[in-house]
Amino acid sequence: MSDTTVVSDLLIDRADGLLVMTINRPHRRNAIDLPTANALAAALDELDDDPTLHAGVLTGAGGFFSSGMDLKAFAETGERPITRSRGGLGIVGRPPRKPVVAAVDGHVLGGGFEIALACDLIVSGSEARFALPEVKRGLIAAGGGAIRLSQRLPHHVAMEMLLIGEPLAASRALELGLVNRLVPSDQVRSMALELAHAIAGNAPLAVAATKQIVAKSRTLEFDEAYRRQEEIAAPVRASNDAQEGARAFAEKRPPVWRGR
Prior knowledge:
The protein contains 10 helices and 12 strands. The chain is an alpha/beta fold. α4 runs antiparallel to α5 and α8 packs antiparallel against α9.
């Protein structure tokens, strides 16, 4: 059974331990205005705070993901979709503690690409194209795009995308490891759900701690990263879930995770 609510232009479905968030502004190519950014930030707070939710999926309605900031709203009112709790676009400043899979298709440009980069896995439609074209408009990909892209691609590939601003085909994104799965457009959502269910089937404390270790160790020397990793890993190692994992393995049965 799923439970669907609508907050601003965000559809939120809860089912089987997943929170599925769909940006529902196809008339604006799913551009994010401030109410939608606030709704997304609140949904991600729910994902983090609800112990029955283990992973999220973020996608867009109408055959494409998001075009980023709603420039029309900005031109008309000066509104910028920056939230207090999670920064720009409701996610790029502070992504959730729990994993989120982005299900993308169509043109994934600018802030829309930055939203996808703020997620942990990306499932792409075969016709998707990725770009950070801000330099073509006198701007900078300052919603985390320049930082995250340079962490995930070889230096010269990232610099080409950032300094020239031309789009990258989905097939090339797969070759470079920028996306996890490349599927036909009509399978993007189902594949993202499949990956999210695979994450949700694992021990929630261990999943959250693993994501935290990866996030915190990117810019550290190995010795310091290893020390901080132990600070995060030790409580998980001492948890009931860790004991349950060992018992389930020995007893040849599926584990029953309690998140403690």
